[in-house]
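Preliminary data (for renewal application), adenosine-5'-triphosphate complex.
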Amino acid sequence: MRLSRYFMPILKENPKEAEIVSHRLMLRTGMIRQQSQGIYSWLPLGKRVLDKVNKIIREEQNRSGAIELLMPTLQSAELWQESGRYDAYGKEMLRIKDRQDRPMLYGPTNEEMVTDIFRSYIKSYKDLPLNLYHIQLKFRDEIRPRFGTMRSREFMMKDAYSFDLTQEGAVQSYNKMFAAYLRTFNRLGLRAIPMRADTGPIGGNLSHEFIILADTGESEVFCHKDFVNFDIPGEDTDFDDAAGLKGIFDKWTSVYAATSEMHDEAAFNAIPEGDRLSARGIEVGHIFYFGTKYSEPMGAKVQGPDGKEHSVHMGSYGIGPTRLVPAIIEASHDENGIIWPASVAPFDVVVINMKAGDQACDEACETVYAALSKAGKDVLYDDRDERAGTKFATADLIGVPVQIIVGPRSIASGEVEVKDRKTGARETMTVEAAINRLAG
Ligand code: ATP
Ligand code: MG
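Predicted structure:
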């Protein structure tokens, strides 16, 4: 992408309305734009990051055996009357009427709809277990939307729903998602800690929130320091191995971790003082097992091996991609801007032409840009007619992991500088060496 032809509306001033660093940086870099309270457009730079986050989420959901579909944002109120949640949900639900005066709603979550899909097609235990997920916009009319897309009214969610014949099966489905979540957040460059959680309006018996530690987090959390060193389940995790999955769950729930709603002061104080971590955190994921809470009132039954009808045991599993993007920034930035983990960076590398119009600089930049693009890298080429200082500041601000700096002096001897955004380390090397380094 040539920056001169791109749409990346960088703001010179720090936006006054932004209280936390991620919100400030997302506005300054032109990643998002507020359209009305708690409702955002994702501009091209932000959309690139969001897509990469969703790609990782999708890969890990698929790896665990979940199957993607896409359900609509608008739902009929009738379904929610069946479960009893139409009245229970309260003002967070945006209620709409269509031209025939039929009550509709903008989905805040999809348990009812996916249960309806399930009951329409699945009749036998032989088709279980099943886990269906989608990545879709949700709307919750939050009392206090704030911090940009961290807590917005319209937001994106990956929500998965599992169906099993028995509680035992459902716990295995829960453990699959538990392991998939650990892998997902790790690939996003985050250490998320699963904490016992309240089940809230979704209801149910077993629930964990996945929390990122951050000073600006809205939740107060308490946990054991050991979490920092726990191993993340590997790529070779066998999602059909019930005992192996239980082992992962047991390990990650073996030491104390709780949000303030579930906090047990005495249990926390039993941890040696030096190992106690009391901090603030951001909830980036939440998983629930809730048994037959929806399947029973909505008649989602299958025939079991005993020939009888059984209400299916269900769980639901949410991750917030539009909250994860600012959470990653909260965890990874410095005074100059964002520092993207390579896995979600909007571009892999930025080529900085210090003197656009200078023949040797232009040619070297074009060579690098073409070679790395051909190698499948996402390359941003800063070919603008701007001062070198402005370009350096932009590159640092938008946080692309590697910068290739092409200036008239070094290119005279065929060399460029390669700068690591995170460490600031710079290395001088030939154009070919830079290409080889980054094309791999
Ligand atoms: P919170 O406690 O932060 O209000 P919640 O418990 O109501 O969230 P869930 O129903 O568990 O949210 O939703 C699953 C995930 O969706 C959350 O873990 C979070 O990542 C994301 N999410 C929920 N509400 C919002 C929001 N208003 N803005 C952005 N992301 C959200
Ligand atoms: Mg939650």
